Amino acid sequence: MKKILFTISLTFLAGYAMAQETMSLGRCLQMGIERNLNLKTYEGNVLKGKHNVSENRSRLLPQINIGAGLNDNFTPPVSVTDGRAYGKPYNVTKTLQYNSSASIQLQMPLYSQTALTALEISKTLEQLNTLSYSKAKEDLIVQISKMYYLAQNTEEQIGIIKDNIKRLEELRDITQAFHDNDMALSVDVKRVNVNLENLSVQYDNAKAM
Fold first, then answer.
1. Domain boundaries in the chain?
2. pLDDT by residue (tens digit) across 133-191?
3. What are the helix and strand counts (H, E) for the chain?
4. Which of these, 110, 78, 111, lies nearest to 96 by C-alpha position?
5. 152-161 own/partner pairs: CB under 8 Å, 24+ apart
């Protein structure tokens, strides 16, 4: 497949420099898909839709809550009580310096119509976002391909016109020489000049394209 030349401007701090890079259609498509802002918006919607589906689905799944704690009593409190029941004048009770606790809780929704409806809606929106992204991507590919082949066709057209102009210039010189020697009419010279002028206009239009 023939490749087309695109001029890429490279900006430097000290000024500007021009470089040329030969780019295939595949490379042009890749750059267009990666850098198109409209396509990035659709891509963000797809990602957002996936998050919404995951969030709504998680509401229907079992949830486990685990907690743990550890207390450190630097100066454990001491309590004194009557110890005659134990044969002592008093009884001293010391509190433990360290104590810990742990808990686990399991929650399972049996049925939630609201959560189920939200999940179905989020799935539908995810599908719509995915289809919109695919459609936008296909449209972008078509547009880039049309531009690429239009540039190729224009380049070929410019080359053909240049060749035709060169041939007509040779024919004009020959016809003018014949006319100078009374071997051709002035209308023949004018006809060649008109054709040459028309080709020049076509060449300028093709370059502008």
1. 4-62+108-208, 63-107
2. 999 999 999 999 999 999 999 999 999 999 999 999 999 999 999 999 989 899 999 99
3. 4, 6
4. 78
5. 152/2, 152/4, 154/206, 154/209, 155/4, 157/206, 158/203, 158/206, 158/207, 161/199, 161/202, 161/203, 161/206
Opening angle at CA 199, ends 193 and 201, nearest 5: 105
Q: 4-62+108-208: which CATH topology?
A: Outer membrane efflux proteins (OEP) (1.20.1600)
Q: What span, in angstroms and rounded, lies between the C-alpha atoms of 57 and 12?
A: 51
Over residues 41-49, mean pLDDT:
92
Quote the crossing angle between the two packed helices 113-180 and 186-208, to the nearest 10°: 160
Tokens in use for 81? 């009580």
Distance from C-alpha of 52 to C-alpha of 122, rounded to nearest angstrom: 6
Cα–Cα separations (whole angstroms), residue 192 to 131, 163, 199: 58, 15, 11
pLDDT at 47 over 90: yes
> 130, 129, 133, 113: which is closest to 56 by C-alpha?
113
DSSP string covering 163-176: HHHHHHHHHHHHHH
Q: Describe the chain by its helix, strand, coil percentages, rounded to 5.
A: 60, 20, 15
Residue type, position 110, single letter: L
H or E stretch covering 199: helix 186-208
At CA 26, angle to CA 19 and CA 156, rounded to 5?
65
